[in-house]
Every structure is written in structure tokens, then in C-alpha cells.
Amino acid sequence: MELVALILDFVLHIDRYLETFVQTYGAWVYALLFLIIFVETGVVVMPFLPGDSLLFVVGAMCGVGLMSYPVVVSLLLVAAVAGNQCNYTIGRYFGPKVFQWEDSKFFNKRAFNQAHDFYEKYGGITIVAARFMPFLRTFAPFVAGVAQMTRSKFTFFDVTGGALWVVGLVTVGYFFGNIPLVKTHLEKIIWAMILVPGLLVFVGAWRARRKAQTADAAKA
User: Fold this and answer.
1) Cα dist. 25→17, 36, 79, 141 in Å?
2) CA–CA separation, 81 and 77 (whole Å)
């Protein structure tokens, strides 16, 4: 519970932690930011790291001169793209190994084919949209790899989504993060950045499940 409380405190007060880190370690903050973004997008077991709020706060800190906007955007874009590529590669490597066990309870040929077809048709928009969805952005590239989505197609949408996510949120933070009203309600804004996308994913999944159940009922 102490670990959960520490992580939650870091996420909600990331501006204080980063400012202290910059004042103490200077340029090493760039290495820390690169590591956080890379690990969040590149390691499927680390979906709880604060991607959206981190980018927004970093943009705000660039706005007051604590960090360099061009350096931040360049480094974090590389981290975001490389992280997704790593996650995709892990899924692509381990997927076929699992799928060799066609008689095991871990393999469902029909589900695999459906996932592959889905990612070939809609994987692009999924990869881009997932960038703005906590948790989903960590699992989407892994599933794309497992589903054997074409590498070239994945890379195109990986770079596109990464650019929109990093440049977009850092820039918004740069221009609006230091407005007094925003700074006063920063914790609420961070909560919104965490909960609203998650709620949209939940509602979307619920609707998709209802639609599938209705379709199955109609066939029956």
C-alpha cells in the first residue's frame, strides 16, 4: 500500500518532484524523462507511469525556462517511438512461440485470426488513439505485435501517434500550464487526464461487447 501511495503522490504532484529534480541534478532530468516515457510505452508491465500528465507538466516547465522545449520534444518523441517499437517486437517475438501450442488452453486460432484482421484493418487508428489512453497505450503495441500487424504499417502509425502525443501535450503545457487558474487546479486536471480517457475506453469496450452480444443473439 505504501508503494501505491508513493506512486499516486508522484503522479498527482509530478510538478513538484520534477522541479526538485531539476534543481538538484540539472540536465540529468532529460535522461529521467526519456527513461519514464520509454518504459511506460515499451514495457508491457509498466502501464501506470504518468505519461500524459508528465508531458503536460514538462511543457509548463519549458514555458518558464526550467527545461529546453526543443530538447524535450526531440528526446521524448524518440523515447515514445522506440518504446512502442520495443513493445511491438516483444509481442511479435513471443506471440508465435505461444501460438505453436495449438492444442493448449493458451491458444485460440480463431481469436488470433480476428485480432490479426482487426489490426490490419483498424490497427492504425488504434495505435494513434491509444497514445492518449492510459494503460491502453502500453498494451496496444504489444497486441499489435502478437497479432502480427505489418511492421511498416505499425511504424508509420507509431511515429504519427507519437508525434501527436508528445508534441501536442508538451506544447499545450508550454502555452497553458503556467496560467494561474491551471496551476491552482493542476491536481484536478491530472485526475481528468487519467480518468476521462480511461472512462472512454471502458464505455467503448462495453458498447462493443453489447454489440457483439446482440449480433450473436440475432444469429442464434
Assistant:
1) 12, 16, 20, 33
2) 6
List, for residues 75-86, the tens digit of each pLDDT value: 999 999 999 999
Number of helical H runs and strand E runs in the chain: 10, 0
Q: Give CA–CA dist 69/43, Å, rounded.
A: 26
Q: At what angle do helices 69-99 and 151-176 cross, to 10 degrees?
A: 150
Q: Cell for 45? A: 508491465
Which pTM was predicted?
0.76
Distances (CA, A) of 116 to 140, 144, 211: 13, 8, 20
Cell representation of residue 68: 529546453
> Domain boundaries in the chain?
2-219
What CA–CA distances, in Å, run from 154 to 2, 119, 166? 38, 9, 18
Helix, strand, coil abundance in the chain, percent, nearest 5? 80, 0, 20
φ/ψ (deg, to 5) at 143: -65, -35
Looking up cell 480517457 gives 197
pLDDT tens readout for residues 53-108? 888 888 988 988 889 999 999 999 999 999 999 999 998 887 766 665 555 555 55
The 10 Å CB-count burial string (b at 16+, else e) for 119-134 is: beeebbebbbbbbbbb
* CA–CA dist 81, 165 (Å, integer): 11
